[in-house]
Design brief:
By secondary structure, the chain is mainly β. It is built from no helices and twelve strands. The strands form two sheets. Strands 1, 2, 3, 6, 7, 8, 9, 10 and 11 form a nine-stranded mixed β-sheet that branches. Strands 4-5-12 form a three-stranded mixed β-sheet, with no helix packed on it. Strand 6 and strand 7 form a beta hairpin. The chain starts with 5 loop residues before the first strand and ends with a strand.
Amino acid sequence: MPMPRIPYRLSPAAMAVIGTAASPRLSDPKNGVIATDWETGAEIWQMTVMVIDEGRADSMLIQVPETGLPKDLTVGSTVRLTNLVASPWANASVDKRGQARLSEGVTYRAESLELLAAAPIPSGAPAPAVAVKAAPAATPEVSGVKKAA
């Protein structure tokens, strides 16, 4: 069952900056299965984005379908978040000692990221060698990644 999606409105003056490299979101970390969109089947990637809006700054882990990521995206790039939604979630479980545990949070997801400005390169510094979105095989944490069935 899909999670509820609550539109997350940003002001027109809001600014978003990529904080960490994109990586695949794993739906099954034990087996390395990448999460996919329920409707389109596109792989889901995630990255930390610093969102500055109306005098407030928030660091958000945002999920985006691979089809919504610009190819020239790098850490430090300024982006516009398209159709950002928040989905609250909760998970009840029992630990090894029989104690009930409740985990809860909010997942943020954007339909796509629109590249507004590439990351600035300090004068005299070499160009960044690593793009934000690397192939799964190039990242040790996701070696042996499998597609969700």
